[in-house]
Amino acid sequence: MTTFALDPNIKIVRGACPHDCPDTCAMLVKVKDGKAISVGGDPSHPVTQGFLCAKVSRYVERTYHPGRLLYPQRRVGARGAGQWERIGWDEALQTIATRFKGIVAEHGAQAILPYSYAGTMGLLHYGSMDRRFFNKLGASLLDRTICSAAGQAGLAYTVGDSIGTDIEQFAHAKLILIWGSNTLTSNPHLWPFIKRARAAGARVIAIDPYRSRTAAQCDEHLAINVGTDAALALGMMHVIFREGLEDRSYLEQYTVGAQELRQRVLEYPPERVAEITGLQASRIAALAQQYATEQPAVIRVNYGLQRHAGGGMAVRTIACLPAVVGAWRQPAGGILLSSSGSFPLNVAALERRDLVPAGTRTINMNQLGAALTTTDDPPVKALYVYNSNPAAVAPDLEAVQRGLLRDDLFVVVHEQFMTDTADYADILLPATTQLEHCDIHKAYGHLYLLWNEPAIAPLGEALPNTEVFRRLAAHMGFDDPYFQDSDEELARQVLSNDHPALQGITLELLKEKGWVRLQLPQEFAPFAAGRFPTPSGKCELMSQRMADDGLESLPTYTPPRESATTNPELAACYPLALLSPPAHHFLNTTFVNVLQRFEGEPTLEINAVDAQARGLIMGDMVQVWNDRGSFEVKAVITDRVKPGVIVTPSIWWRKLAGDGRNVNMTTGQALSDMGGGATFYDNLVEVAKRPRESVVE
Length: 697
Ligand SMILES: Nc1nc2c(c(=O)[nH]1)N[C@H]1C(S)=C(S)[C@@H](COP(=O)(O)OP(=O)(O)OC[C@H]3O[C@@H](n4cnc5c(=O)[nH]c(N)nc54)[C@H](O)[C@@H]3O)O[C@H]1N2
Ligand SMILES: Nc1nc2c(c(=O)[nH]1)N[C@H]1C(S)=C(S)[C@@H](COP(=O)(O)OP(=O)(O)OC[C@H]3O[C@@H](n4cnc5c(=O)[nH]c(N)nc54)[C@H](O)[C@@H]3O)O[C@H]1N2
Ligand SMILES: [Mo]
Fold this sequence. Notes:
The chain has 697 residues and is α/β, with parallel strands linked by helices.
């Protein structure tokens, strides 16, 4: 805490942005008379660089928003009817404990399901006391797969862990491929480094079916067919090997399977890849040549392209490219998906998975609909939701909603706002925001640890996640000492790992500085000399682990589950591939209620060819549907999408969308090829002008 020089009554408190984004910004919060008056990006932080995004720069508005939940409530009317009664914390927690004990006695503890994701990414409030609580209880485990599971698995098979090029090194690259990522919206603090590279002559190429805000700003945009990225990477490798542009010594020293890969990519000449990807064969060949020769070349791949049936294999295949051309040799070469594996934190101490009873089942969060409607032995009898808004973000919302409406299901929601999910709660608990609690943060897009100091007192009776689980443990009669740890003790535990990258990084240092870079070289080049954290210690172009897991051991192209090639009957009914990437002013569903004015209303971007075929004009209200469900949006006719692809910027709160539905009425619970990931963008639909008799229910 420092005093602001100009006004002695203004303090500046160091914070960290809690949101699910690679940038994890260092924030400076101005506080006057106990009230936060503004937030800004720390100018001295090398990645935050003094600015916050369009959303978090309005965090003060969000914190003091009239919609904040300020005290515990109990549902009094019918489920979802919005009738509530204020109660005290003790009563709320006692009610939960009593219900939980009853469920445990009747059905066993696995009938209780925690459901959480990344409403905050702070290590304490993302997963610490909550995990201890549910582990000790013996509740069903939740597999947290909704976002990154497929890509993470694909990357781990190939390079060993979520480790990649340092974001700060992008400034020194000669060629930057932005592959399946809308950087300006979902990772904006990378952009200044890209601008610096460009000023020094670098080329920037976007590979994305959609001319996103980012693609529009690049030197070139390759509008690839949805879900065909692995084929493009294979075609690039075909050309690289054919023309002898590979880095033979890197391949020999630091990879396994180069010979087998060379054989495999023979199956993917540019002409075949052109048919799959919709790109020109000559462009594919030229891209491969550029990629191999304009070094250092770096790939920013992100989670957008792995929300498909073949998402894991797509990331795995793309992740072979830097080894093939030896791009890893230089700090500014390589690939970045996530940097989270560079943080050697003691998460085991936080979560205490050792407390989980043997044989406890795991439920994949992408199949919440099925878990609530079909799972048996035991059925799910209680759902405790925090850090997430599944009634809007989960796939196949028709099924989720049916589950949430079950009379015999006990639902607890701990939230900052009255979200779509909060509407279904039996007991609704108020949560603090980042300005009201402390936390410690790693990042998945850079290499700094951050401390978040509370800036203001909690509003109303709001409590942080850790404290709720401490108290709930007491109400359950759990008196184990690990339920007594304070937030600062938890922070010390997560830092307690004897690893060179953490050397000298103490809680005291973090509190004093606000943020600290991991002890890694300034010119970090993780795999310049091999040392991949794989079983072989090499980049696994061929992976025995994949074979052991029943997967193809070599890179390959796995088409989308829903496409004209793989399912022609389905595509005949539902010919349009629907993408639902983040809207610029929303963070998943966070901020929708606060910043809706900047996004207007839900829209559907559609090409003129597809619009004409359906008699649509600009501004028409349309219905979008498939066998899973439907929702309504306003049509925007644009050449940002090519025929056959449509885009609806997401994720809207259902109750703030015109018809009380959103895109996830149409998305499915089917999983990706690896990691049990979600397949939100593997989604065929049809569109028609509203009203359309046959779909009105
Ligand atoms: N403003 C904002 N920022 C965010 C978020 C947010 O909601 N709003 N969400 C955060 C979260 S949780 C995450 S996981 C990250 C996601 O960050 P990114 O991974 O960058 O994800 P998206 O913006 O979802 O998708 C990026 C692009 O992928 C494209 N895409 C879709 N399918 C394919 C495909 O098959 N191939 C290729 N090449 N491209 C494809 C989409 O058209 C989109 O332009 O962003 C984080 N940052
Ligand atoms: N169609 C479609 N669906 C998608 C996606 C997509 O691109 N398209 N993206 C997917 C992705 S990548 C992700 S990551 C998921 C995101 O799904 P979620 O992680 O559920 O993200 P949010 O919708 O932002 O909901 C987070 C909630 O946590 C609350 N919260 C914030 N901080 C705290 C806290 O400290 N304590 C408690 N108790 N609550 C808190 C917020 O108010 C917010 O309502 O959605 C997925 N769904
Ligand atoms: Mo995500």
